[in-house]
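User: My collaborator sent over this chain with a note saying "see what the structure looks like." That's all I know about it. Can you take a look?
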Amino acid sequence: MSDLRRLERETLAAIETAADEPALEAVRVAALGKKGTISALLANLGKMSPDERKTQGARINALKDKVSAALAERRGALKTAALEHRLATETIDVTLPARTSPLDIGRVHPLSQVNDEIAAIFADLGFAIAEGPDIETDDYNFGKLNFPPEHPARDMHDTFFLAPDARGERKLLRTHTSPVQVRTMLRQKPPIRVICPGRAYRCDSDQTHTPMFHQVEGLVVDKQANLGQLKWTLSEFCKAFFEVCDVAMRFRPSYFPFTEPSMEVDIQCSRRSGEIRFGAGEDWLEILGCGMVHPNVLENCGLDPEVYQGFAWGIGIDRIAMLKYGMPDLRAFFEADIRWLRHYGFRPLDFPTLLAGLSS
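Assistant: Without extra context I'll predict from the sequence alone. Here is the result:
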């Protein structure tokens, strides 16, 4: 009898002094667990005589009920205390300013934005987008584009050549996106109306050149493609991209192996206070090269130049992005400076559309 009273006092005292729920659980296991003190007493009832079992069993079960009730009461008190502590320490100061949304912090890179602007304009003109690999063969990058072996025009491209493969073939990083035009003509029958945006690579680096740059080329092949259509297409693009009502363009004779005749295009502008404005002015700025697709290129791609003719053009995306948004140095595009991106970047949901305005 005295042992049961001592066990009761000790167990209830341990329950009362348990500081938290893990400590309380340890007391429960010590008393009522499989090998607990009270559980051991209940296990020994089978060894007693019937009279002892009747007397001791009632006392041990009463002790078990009392301990269980004390455990439940203490557990409730500990949960209430823990909740009150959290409410006191985890209060929210509703007077603080709201956290800035990721939509307000994040910025779309100007090159991505300009890419989307170009795609929106040409999609409205009925052009599809064609893509190709960055690593090309000499034949696609030069051969089929009317660059004969050892032709001096190859030196203009400052090509990055890769090490020869097991077959001795030496591939390269494409110097323009024109190989995509070749792949399109080989795969698709005219009429063809595509633009080919993507990265290109040349061994050059200064304020207006980088070893990797972005370019978009356009290609139209049809039975009646002509220079008038080329000029109209480029004029509509420049008006939409620079967001002006009218633009004067000047076409100057030039040379590209893959077009004949070849032209470089200047756009009228004004330069005042360090700013370039398009659509009016007394100055001219070169923005792209273009021409009629050379008959040799059509023939190399399996098209009969007596039946089909085409025109093509190429624009440096980085260059026109600098011109439109007033960025002085091309190298900053690739430096991953978050301060520069916050200044020149675009909000994530500013999707360019011709209806709402490309850069609104």
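A starting point for your reply to your collaborator: The chain is about 40% helix and 20% strand.
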